[in-house]
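Lab meeting, item 3. Inverse folding demo.
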């Protein structure tokens, strides 16, 4: 470890004296290819529905999504994370629509892959957009989440997505053993190159509220919570055990979620495992910045960029963020 010489030989401010010097010694930089853009898609044609709790974010029909994706790709964004808004009449307690090869996600994936073959497409593996109770898995008569039964369904869901052309499947459900279940099913379905981005350390967070509004699962979930599968915000070591298990089960990349409140976890995961590590700046984090900026209390662009850079400094290889296109546009200047 290098240290500065004692004052006055050592003057850290020398390196901060002008912009050129600051640029020379900057340790971390943000690049558009660091950004993964989460997008919401719903059924229909010619429709974009704004998400009230996420200013600037809309749910699009496929035809409306295409020009948005084209613009994002031109800005240098290389990856999209796809989240479906499923019609209420297609939801049931088993989330069966998740396995429909002609469902919304497979159709959107096929079209996006056709139009943008160089874009990495990430699909979410979890049942909450599809279940009438809004949980990520199937439940018993007491409402408890059934682990192994859910894993069997998730494995089939991942295969449907991979067969449609998804490059990366991302289990966000936090069932035990799901990475192993998905990896085995992908191998059996002759999809050995489908990557698994595991939401390994996903916390039972109150920052997901606006997302649940966006996909329409908030009403289904009601007063129930996800604490029996998502992690307790008080735990750090446990995140490392989760990551270790997911890597052993066949995950190619791991994720920590939410972001800013869990940067210590991002850092520990990266320094402990040295695997591709991603962080998700979730809906509530996005909306907080938007809300404060709308009040004129903070500088929107400066806070957005400072926050995204913080993820990289903590050790993230990439960041899922609803700011992706806005940030990429700023980086182009
Ligand atoms: C659910 C899922 C959630 C998010 C991504 N996938 C919400 C939840 O667990 O309830 C949240 C993302 C966000 O808040 O931006 N499988």
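The presenter then showed the designed sequence:
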């Amino acid at each position: 470890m290098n240290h500065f010489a004692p004052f006055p030989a050592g003057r850290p401010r020398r390196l901060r004296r002008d912009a050129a010097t600051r640029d020379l010694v900057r340790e971390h930089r943000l690049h558009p290819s660091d950004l993964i853009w989460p997008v919401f898609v719903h059924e229909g044609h010619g429709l974009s529905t704004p998400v009230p709790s996420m200013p600037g974010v809309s749910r699009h029909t496929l035809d409306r999504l295409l020009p948005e994706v084209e613009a994002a790709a031109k800005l240098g964004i290389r990856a999209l994370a796809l989240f479906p808004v499923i019609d209420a009449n297609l939801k049931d307690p088993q989330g069966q629509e998740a396995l429909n090869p002609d469902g919304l996600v497979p159709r959107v994936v096929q079209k996006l892959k056709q139009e943008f073959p160089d874009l990495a497409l990430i699909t979410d593996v979890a049942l909450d957009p599809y279940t009438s109770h809004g949980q990520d898995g199937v439940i018993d008569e007491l409402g408890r989440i059934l682990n192994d039964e859910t894993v069997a369904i998730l494995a089939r869901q991942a295969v449907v997505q991979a067969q449609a052309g998804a490059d990366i499947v991302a289990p966000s459900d936090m069932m035990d053993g799901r990475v192993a279940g998905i990896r085995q099913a992908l191998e059996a379905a002759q999809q050995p190159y489908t990557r698994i981005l595991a939401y390994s350390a996903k916390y039972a967070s109150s920052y997901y509220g606006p997302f649940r509004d966006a996909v329409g699962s908030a009403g289904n979930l009601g007063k129930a919570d996800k604490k029996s599968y998502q992690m307790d915000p008080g735990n750090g070591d446990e995140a490392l055990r989760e990551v270790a298990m997911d890597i052993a089960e066949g995950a190619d990349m791991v994720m920590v979620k939410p972001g800013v409140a869990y940067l210590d976890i991002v850092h520990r995961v990266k320094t402990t495992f040295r695997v591709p590590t991603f962080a998700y700046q979730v809906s509530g984090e996005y909306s907080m910045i938007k809300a404060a900026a709308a009040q004129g209390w903070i500088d929107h662009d400066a806070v957005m960029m400072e926050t995204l850079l913080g993820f990289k400094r903590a050790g993230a290889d990439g960041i899922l963020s609803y700011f992706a296109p806005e940030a990429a546009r700023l980086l182009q200047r």
